[in-house]
Amino acid sequence: MLQSHTARTMLANSELIIMLNQASTDRVELAKLLNISDLQMSYITNVNAGEGLIKIGSSLIPFVNKFPKDTELYKLMTTKPRRRSSSLMKKVFNVIIVSLLIGIILISSYFIYKELKQNKKQEDTFNELIVIVEDKQDDNNKEENLNLSKLYNLNNDFVGWLKIENSNINYPVMQSKSKPNYYLKRDFYQNYSSYGTPYISEQCNIGTSDNLIIYGHHINNKKMFGELENYKEKDYYDKHSLLTFSTLQDTSQYKIFAVFKTVAYSNKGFKYYNYIDFEDEEKFNEFLNKCNELSLYDTNIQPEYKSSLITLSTCEYSNKNGRLVVVAYKLDS
User: Fold this and answer.
1) With contact defined as beta carbons under 8 Å apart, do 78 and 25 qualify?
2) How far apart are CA 102 and CA 127, in angstroms?
3) d(CA 319, CA 9)
4) Is the C-alpha dihedral spanning 248, 249, 250, 256 positive or negative?
5) What is the pLDDT of residues 87-121, one digit of tens each?
6) CATH class assigned to 156-330
7) pLDDT tens digits, one per residue of 148-191
8) What is the pLDDT of residues 131-144, one digit of tens each?
9) Helix, strand, coil % (nearest 5) of the chain?
10) Which helix (H) or strand (E) holds 24?
11) What are residue 192's DSSP bridge partners?
12) CA–CA separation, 12 vs 225, rounded Å?
């Protein structure tokens, strides 16, 4: 089943999954698809009946439900013929099943509520940060940079602000060189968050790198970089081809010139994340040519050598370890 794209997409977007003992091939696929750690995998590897993992939202909860065999209730519930007591056993079995279902529903409801509450808190945090950034006394760029400085004073990992007009993308951008991928599951204030916060690759230098790689979660309902899914359609691109990236030093506009899908961590995919500094024009053209080759449509744009680039990257679920990538070049000010 896990080889089916439809099944993988359903599992990746499911809020509730109960996993018991899994075959070795399925375990590998589930670990990649649901980000299950080695410790968590032990709960679905060669385990006994009544043991496994429950995935609720982004939380993974191990459970062990061992039933004592030396009890009258076990004798009533067992399916072994010599111990069967049909009518009473069925009644008890039904009661147990209903009780378990109610328990699962209650536990699921709690964790779904907790997840929704946390997501609401994260959205409120972003809205608060937007108020700080856009609270300008005049249209002076210095005043805008002053507001960005306020965010930097709150968290020194803050490096810039990314915005695409008439879209949900209006977020702070972080960078933690000492802790790669730190903001994948952290909010602006470094608290746990399933949304995470967009962040720049630790290999990039915000002031000198030729190509800034910015990662963000693909969240349902077009949250975070889930909005990039719209760029699969040329009509959307035509109306949203510009993005703005502001740093503590300046604000620049970028023009999107390529949108493509690929796979990460595979020799079959395009390792776009390795193209950060171009040693010469040949390397620059190599990157551009591959972007245009994979692009979902032709934008009729070819950036010139020495152009500064921004690459937005998020998950894409049509392939295992799939990525949706949007690449833009800096316009002359």
Assistant:
1) no
2) 37
3) 9
4) negative
5) 566 777 778 888 888 888 888 787 777 777 777 77
6) mainly beta
7) 888 999 999 999 999 999 999 999 999 998 888 899 989 999 98
8) 877 765 445 544 44
9) 40, 25, 40
10) helix 24-34
11) 186
12) 16
Q: Where are the domains of the chain?
A: 1-66, 69-135, 156-330
User: What tokens does 308 get?
Assistant: 């500064």
152, 248 Cβ separation under 8 angstroms: yes
| Helix, coil or strand: residue 171 | strand
Contacts of 169 (CB under 8 A, 6+ apart): 162, 163, 225, 227, 228, 243
Structure tokens belonging to residue 319: 């392939």
Task: Give the tokens for residue 83.
Answer: 């111990």
Decide the pairing of beta strands 211-215 and 309-315.
Answer: parallel
Asked if 206 contacts 250 with a C-beta cutoff of 8 angstroms, the reply is no
User: In the structure encoding, which two tokens stand for residue 11, read together?
Assistant: 């599992």
Q: DSSP 3-state assignment of 97?
A: helix
Cβ(206)–Cβ(159) below 8 Å: yes
* Lowest mean pLDDT, pick from 57-71, 249-263, 291-305: 57-71
Alpha-carbon distances of 232 from 23, 229, 236, 258, 276, rounded to whole Å:
36, 6, 8, 10, 24
CA distances from 264 to 5, 154, 199, 207 (A): 17, 33, 17, 26
